[in-house]
Specification:
The complex is a heterodimer.
Chain A (H helix, E strand, L loop, with lengths): L1 H8 L14 H14 L2 H9 L5 H9 L3 H30 L3 H14 L3 H12 L4 H10 L16 H23 L2 H12 L4 H30 L2 H6 L7 H9 L4 H35 L18 H21 L16 H4 L4 H27 L5 H9 L2 H14 L6 H26 L2 H9 L4 H12 L1 H17 L2 H6 L7 H9 L4 H29 L8
Helix pairs in contact in A: 1-11, 1-18, 2-17, 3-19, 4-14, 5-9, 5-11, 6-9, 7-9, 7-15, 7-26, 9-11, 10-11, 11-14, 13-14, 15-26, 17-20, 17-23, 17-25, 17-26, 18-20, 20-23, 21-22, 23-26, 25-26
Chain B lengths: L1 H15 L2 H12 L3 E7 L3 H18 L2 E7 L3 H12 L10 E4 L2 H8 L25 E2 L2 E2 L4 E8 L1 E5 L10 H10 L12 H14 L12 H18 L14 H10 L4 E4 L4 H7 L7 E4 L5 E9 L7 H11 L2 H8 L17 H7 L13 E2 L5 H14 L3
Helix pairs in contact in B: 2-11, 4-5, 7-8, 12-13
Classes of the chains: A mainly alpha, B alpha/beta.
Chain lengths: 553, 391
Amino acid sequence: MAQTLRLTLERPLPRPAQSWTWTPRLWLAVLPVLLIFGPLLPGLYWALAPAFDAEVWQALWLDAQWPQALRATMISSVLSTVLACAIAALLATLHYPGRLWTRLQRRLPLLLSVPHAAFAVGMFFLIAPSGWMARATAQFLQWTSPPDWVTVQDPYGLSLTLALAIKESWFLLWVLAAVLGEQAVSRQMVMGRSLGYSRTQTWALILWPQLLPRLVWPVMAVFAYGLSVVDMAVILGPSTPPTLAVLIWHWLTDPDPMFQARGSAASLVLLAVLLVCAAGARGLGWLWIRRRPYPSGQRTPASNWRWFKLHSLLFATGYAVVAVLLLWSVAQGWFFPALLPDAVSLASWQQADWTPFWTTLWLALAACLLCLPAVLLWLEWGPKRLNALLYLPLIVPALPLVAGQYAVLLQTQLDGTAVALVWSHLLWVLPYMVLTLIGPYRAFDARLMTSARALGNSPWRACLSVKWPMLLRPILATLAVGFAVSVAQYLPTLFAGGGRFVTVTTEAVALSAGGNRRVLAVQALLQIALPLAAFGLAAAAGHWLGRHRTGLR
Amino acid sequence: MKHSTLTAIAVTLSVVTGAHADWAQTQNEAKGQTVYFNAWGGSEATNAYIAWAVKEAKARYGIDVRHVKITDSAEVVKRVQTEVAAGRTTEGSIDLTWVNGENFRNLKNGGLLFGPWAQSLPNWGLVDLNKPVRTDFSVPTDGYESPWGTAQLTFITDSAKTPAPPRSATELLAFAKANPGRVSYPKPPDFHGTTFVKQLLLELTPDKAVLQQAVTPAAFASATQPLWAYLDQLHPSLWRNGKTFATSAAEMHRMLGDGELKLSITFNPNEAANLIASKQLPSTATSFGFTGGTIGNVHFVAIPVNARAKAGAQVFANFLLSAEAQTRKADVTVWGDGTVLDVAKLPAASQALLRKTAPGALAEAVPTLPEPHASWVEALEAEWLKHYGSR
């Protein structure tokens, strides 16, 4: 697993076999990770133990809501993953290599920084029966009241599926862009084309068979996310019954221990679904490779599908989401079927509650700044073979993990404290930061370190004065990623924070059930603004700090 | 019933003697304490009012109150239960909570409440004892919670589009059939949704007296049979054919504003006025009640048994019960929540403020119907979910 994961974003370089002596530096690298992951083991036991009771499973089986909740979850997670993969694959096949692909790559970070909850809120404003699209249609069809259509919160979770698919396709495109940026891949494309194969053929015969295994883990992360997403599902998903993840969340927070046990059991079901689906996909992949005929060598003419403007649709959705949020945040009276607000004012911004913003800011700063030394130490001296363990939180549904964290905090009476809240975020912030930095870190020219050591520097000094300063730009980008991940956390904030800490994310989700769209839009925009500012600052700071060093720019 | 009245009197008597002498000490103890006040945070008007009270408490009593916004009071029950079960009997995370009905019953029956304390508050003397402030959904409060405000189920409609709204359960059914897809209610166990179902139950059940007793399976079956028959008829004409429900009353207000629904419900007779003022409803929105009356109740604040800042919580609760805080709360431009105080006992200025009204607020007199016994709530919610929770 470690091997495959490492392959996802970087080229493996042959490394000398590592010796396993427990040096103080190794301890230093492992200790922070142990602090973040270690307490989970007893926590998971406490949280999941109630599920090991036949009666609980029987009650779950007989629960009236659970079959449909499972159906909605299966549809939204499987279909959204398939759709996201299809969108990303189609765009790559059509446009790589090319100018459009480069442009796409440049615009991606902007879209990626829109958090899930804010995106869901914007989608809701767009596609709801009283949303912008229906209002636009109403202008032509003379509607006076919204159509009785089921465009959001539909029983099958299709609107949730659509939103997830679009959001995750951006993530997959970003992963693809990283992989496709490699020299080897682009050379193979040139080779394929020069032998007379069309772009599509080269993709199908040469690139995809090689890239697919490397995309397994990112796709798995997308699927696991879809399985246990709660914030988006509360906003866009069905309500009678909700998706399984939301139902589990309700059960886990129910006063009745019987329901809590049912929640534990159901979160084990989520885990099982993940494993079964992953095994199924693996089997299909194996079959596909087995059955694939040996290429006939026949050259097909290039089919020109490039008129297909999928990318415009994808970006237009992203921009429309932000636009409709901006409009609502300044709208006064704005009732159906008006396409634009009657009047605009900054009242909603002036009256906005900024507490969630400041809470999110210090929380995310603390999380990413605490993680940075842990990430650097781990990458420098940590046991490389255990990287896979670090990525587990990304490919496992979040619900059982959050329940485990909460159980630990309850036992230690730390729940509802700032320390607990920051700690709970680290479990997701750390892996994402490692994932972001590992590529540039491994690509770092080892000869520079050898020279530094040869000149008499200790390993510490060599890192502090040569390696880390040279990696400044990727390190800043990593900090921004960590910051963004923390901003987007919903479940850990809710559980570990004990409701005492309100972030822009929890506030946006809480307000989505309320009626005032202006207040909701303001919080959703603040949620977008934070990561966007972090990415912008990281880029600007990197540029400024490297202004006298061409190589670092 | 008689027994509980006697208990209440005994509690009052025992508490009154020497209680006021202790108050100064309680106030001293409260100074500098941090009070975590877990209260539903789903309405900006309510949150803004609590923010004002927090500021006042800091200035007047040196208490640091933190409003912990929650979405459902059941979370509080669970939290206190978990904490106590985990052996955390003194350093609890909640000091004061906004509660009533089945959540109060669960807390009280579970021995999870501190008390009795409410009737020894200095401002208890101002409370209107003719309002049901000593029972909570037919469960005696016994001084374990202090009244905060009154509420009554009220309907909102847009008078420009719906000049003649329904005035009873029967009329509502006809109205829904005439306007398919334009009526809904929040999905129980949402507080407003459950209250709406209870309202229907009160109107439809043959023997209302049964509802004031603790629920039994036999009583439940016979009392609720007409309700399920009614809902079976109503649901096909509801928004999305009754397969999905609005998630909250606030969402219904929004849908009413857009014309997606023709009716919305609230537990605050003044809420429509607030919503018009904040441009969330058109100025033609208006409030009304059922001719036969609608459910009304009192909401309270209670202190968990493992609260850290019990003194601070009491001083804050006493402030919430003061003439000034109650008058401000009743102001339709602030929150518009009904007072629990006896208006005759208040100064003239407060009385004038309490009579202020605004366009959109409930302007007619609607009889108040008593809440069913708290034990009915869980039974109703469970049965509702079984019938309609997964269609």
